[in-house]
Amino acid sequence: MRTLLATAAACGLTATAMGNTHSAVVTFDNGWEGWNGTQGPGGSSVIEQSGGNPGAYARTIFNNFGIEWWTNTNQDFLGDFTQYSSVTVSVDVKVNNISFFGTPAPRNLILDLRSFSQAPQGYPFASVWYTLTEMQSGQDWSTYSVTFDPNATDKPDGWGGYGAEDPNTFEPKLPENLTFADIMSSVEEMAFTTYEPGWMYGFTDFDIGIDNIRIDATLIPAPSAALAILGLAGLAAGRRRRN
Question: What domains does the chain contain, in order, with CATH numbers?
Answer without folding.
Answer: 2-6+22-236 (2.60.120.260)
